[in-house]
Design a protein that fits this description.
By secondary structure, this protein is α/β, with parallel strands linked by helices. The protein has seven helices and 19 strands. The strands form four sheets. Strands 1, 2, 3, 4, 5, 6 and 19 form a seven-stranded mixed sheet that branches.
Length: 322
């Protein structure tokens, strides 16, 4: 099948942990399912996936490769491509790809992840996922007992510093362009976290290793690792024609898609799972959400098919509902 003739029960938009696990559930339920993946996983720069039972330390690329093989092993399809738009077509949906291909689906599972918006500090982006990190549970063990700096870059930065104190006794809070509140300053002091005032203007690197940060007055604060809380924004611009847009997260950390407990969005027939809706989900939680959404999608399709079958049966027998 090519072009306009391609029809699936479910098209999954995004091939990370959430999308692949959702597709796996659907393929095992004997649904026709297509995963469209742009090949830009958020954790691509990380050395390994952590906190995932049975896969601890596995490279992100290897985890996804195995996931794709599992999906296709049950008859699902995985295609490289970038989704340009998704729109309503009758009771289903049309998904248009950047290269011009079009596929149709009865349901959509959005698992397109998020983008990390980092502070505009020279050298920061280049170290991202290496010695510039964001999640203590993802990277804390790897920087244990090191000199860690925490850049005040969002509403969760103080919390981030207090968490990282669990992994190292040498944690410094870099106030950057603001300053902690009196209550926050007391908490940091009580936990032995030093606070340094002054705007951070650059990351210092020697022999491809982070060695510190430079302040606006020229002072260099020596650090071996730097924690940054990025602004996290759901990758969902292609859903605009469906009237589905990311909204501000209640914690003030970015923008996400809102779903109910079953993974349903406000648009009938569209589910979402993973970081596109849960900005702080690790790989395991994203995969779990994808699996749950896949099961709910299959149940929804079963309900629709059952209602159709009942209607046909009544029509054939000439009976009506009482």
């Amino acid at each position: 099948m090519t072009g306009q003739d391609e029809r699936y029960d479910v098209v999954v938009l995004g091939g990370g942990a959430a999308g692949l696990n959702g597709a796996l559930m659907l393929a095992r339920a004997r649904r026709s399912v297509l995963v469209i993946d742009a090949g830009e996983p958020r954790n691509a720069v990380a050395a390994g996936v952590h906190g995932l039972l049975g896969r601890e330390g596995m490279g992100p690329g290897e985890l996804l490769r195995r996931g794709r093989d599992e999906v296709t092993g049950y008859g699902g399809e995985v295609r490289s491509g970038t989704v340009a738009s998704a729109s309503r077509e009758g009771e289903g949906f049309t998904v248009s790809l950047a290269g011009g291909d079009v596929v149709r689906a009865r349901r959509l599972l959005v698992a397109s992840g998020l983008s990390d918006e980092l502070p505009s500090i020279p050298g920061l982006r280049e170290r991202w996922g290496r010695d510039v990190l964001h999640c203590p549970y993802c990277h804390g063990w790897e920087v244990r007992d090191q000199a860690i700096g925490v850049l005040a870059s969002g509403p969760m930065s103080v919390h981030q510093a207090l968490l990282l104190r669990q992994w190292s006794a040498d944690v410094t809070f870099l106030a950057h362009t603001g300053s902690p509140t009196a209550e926050e300053a007391e908490q940091l002091a009580a936990r032995g976290v030093a606070v340094v005032a002054g705007e951070v203007v650059a990351v210092e690197v020697t022999d491809d290793r982070l060695t510190g940060v430079r302040l606006g007055d020229g002072t260099v604060v020596e650090r071996e690792a730097l924690a940054v809380a990025p602004r996290m924004v759901a990758r969902a611009g292609f859903l605009a024609s469906l009237g589905l847009r990311p909204v501000a997260h209640p914690a003030g950390v970015g923008e996400h898609l809102v779903v109910d407990a079953r993974g349903r969005t406000e648009v009938p027939g569209v589910w979402a799972a993973g970081n596109v809706t849960d900005l702080m989900a690790q790989v395991g939680a994203a995969a779990s959400a994808g699996a749950a959404a896949g099961a709910q999608l299959n149940a929804d399709l079963v309900d629709e098919e059952t209602a159709l079958a009942v209607g046909l049966r009544r029509a054939a027998s000439g009976s009506t509902a009482r």
